[in-house]
Amino acid sequence: MMKQLSVEHLLGIKYLKENDLELIFETAAHFKEVINRPIKKVPSLRDITIANLFFENSTRTKLSFELAEKRLSADVINFSAGQSSVKKGETLIDTVNNILSMKVDIVVMRHPNVGAGVFLSQHVDAKIVNAGDGTHEHPTQALLDSFSMREALNSNLKGKKVVIVGDILHSRVALSNIFALQLQGAKVKVCGPTTLIPKYITSLGVEVETNLKKALEWCDVANVLRVQHERMAIKYFPSTREYTQLFGINKEILDNLGKDIVIMHPGPINRGVELTSDVADSKQSIILNQVENGVAVRMAVIYLLAQQIKR
Question: Do 206 and 280 belong to one domain?
């Protein structure tokens, strides 16, 4: 019998078990091999219809999901809230129910409100994949980050040291990564201005390091996040220049570490702010691998959830 996920939806990493992660990674490795063949499509989900509902702007995540779905031969509907009846006051449930009445099996949703995916999963009869809810979780990003780290380090992440650098406060990527890394037995620190580190972070068993040099000397992997100016109603640090001086990573800093560390970034990069171009494009950077792995990991998630759909 085929192995199955322990969950019916992918709402957040906090709902997954370690076995779920291993199954997703195993399946993603298979799909990564598929998408590197001359014929990149498999007929696995030929009879499945997937709706991508993006109530927030997204380029990379949306494209990655769409490509993953098409590689699996699913039928795909794209819905963007900017051009929809949501602007006319339609509720989330009405919007989704209208889409589901078109016989949609899986809904991939990004929404500005925390918990929107959980709310939806309780009210509609379809598999839900959370593509980011507010500043809460972004599970597929954390899965592709872990998958990419395992590939770069050529091992599982038990005992590995990962530092997440930057705007932790506004980042859904940070929280999902913390949950995923801890599930795999990795050690996690966060590093950034104290104003951008949430007060609750230590209660998750995560250490705070405010000195970038010390954080990089400690870690095997640095996952660097951008400063999310669009989520900031107030100023959290004096200036971008000052932020870069204290928390920006350049080639000189890396060369002085005396060891090679893996550099990651979920994108989009503010070049010259959190990373200089020579770091982003260096051999230590696996940023483009993350993009490639994103398609394989999202294929795995969609494929595994689709196996549970009763016909």
Answer: yes
Q: Which amino acid is at 149?
A: M
Query: Residue 80, Cβ neighbours under 10 Å: how many?
Result: 15
* DSSP code string of 3-19: ---S-SSB--GGG--HH
**Angle 237-241-244 (CA atoms, 0-180°, nearest 5)?**
85
67 in the same domain as 206: no
The larger pLDDT score, comparing residue 129 to residue 171, is at 129
Task: Please tell me whether residues 117 and 154 are part of one structural domain.
Answer: no
- Is there a single domain that holds both residue 281 and residue 144? yes
pTM metric for this prediction? 0.94
- Report the distance separating Cα 278 and Cα 68, nearest Å: 30
**C-beta atoms surrounding 239 within 10 Å:** 9
**Three-state secondary structure along 71-93?**
HCCCEEEEEEHHHCHHHHCCCHH
Residues in the chain: 311
φ, ψ of residue 112 to 5 degrees: the values are: -70, -15
Task: Give the whole-angstrom CA distance, residue 257 versus residue 252.
Answer: 9
pLDDT digits (tens, 9 = 90+) for 62-78: 999 999 999 999 999 99
Tell me how far apart the alpha carbons of residues 116 and 134 are, in angstroms, rounded to a whole number: 9
Same domain, 173 and 245: yes
Would you state the structure tokens that stand for residue 114, as one six-digit string?
């925390």
Residue-wise pLDDT tens digits, 257-287: 999 999 999 988 989 999 999 999 999 999 9
Q: Give the domain extent around 221.
A: 139-287
